[in-house]
Amino acid sequence: MTTLSADRVEEIFRDCLCTEEEFNNDAGVVALGLMAQFAFSPERLESHRDEVYALLCELPDTFQQHTGGGQTFLEACFDKHGEQWGEQIYADQLFTLGTALNLVTEPLKGRVPVDALPGGVPYYMVKSLAQIEVKAKTDD
């Protein structure tokens, strides 16, 4: 079982970041986080896909597509058991990894201005496994 923790999220995040050489060769997968934009190594990012998805699934049900449909970033520091697992910087890292892997979406993006949302931060939704699998098949 994967346990959602700040240490594990940061470890994966740092492992996936592009090296200077990869970045200079435009070899990265670029994803926009809440606080910054990051470039990730496609190979290392993909090697963590299953674990990142498992970590995202440890977030409250309100974040999950099949049970809640999305939730404010402000609630992302708590797991589905109501326990605080980390600070906002780690939640941002987790969502940025999820965005880079196409596991996360912003369901209100383009429909509601971010500054109109609570705290002026976006809502995130963890895609259902069925949606991820359908997307992968259509990409082939």
Structure description:
With 140 residues, the chain is of the alpha+beta class. The chain has one domain. The chain contains 6 helices and 5 strands; from the N terminus they run ααββααβαββα. It has helices at 6-16, 20-24, 42-47, 49-56, 88-100, 129-139; strands at 29-32, 37-40, 71-72, 104-105, 123-126. Helix 1 crosses helix 5 (88-100) and helix 4 packs across helix 5 (88-100). The chain is globular, with a radius of gyration of 15 Å.
Structural class: alpha+beta
Radius of gyration: 15 Å
Helix content: 25-40%
Query: What distance separates the N and C termini?
Result: 30 Å
Biggest beta-sheet profile: 3 strands, antiparallel
Order of strands, main sheet, comes to 3-5-4
Shape: globular
Overall average residue pLDDT? 90
Oligomer: single chain
What count of structural domains?
1
What's the structural blueprint in terms of helices and strands?
Layout (H helix, E strand, L loop, with lengths): L5 H11 L3 H5 L4 E4 L4 E4 L1 H6 L1 H8 L14 E2 L15 H13 L3 E2 L17 E4 L2 H11 L1
Antiparallel strand pairs: 1-2, 3-5, 4-5
Helix pairs in contact: 1-5, 4-5
Quickly list its features.
alpha+beta; 5 strands; 6 helices; three-stranded antiparallel sheet; 140 residues; two-stranded antiparallel ribbon
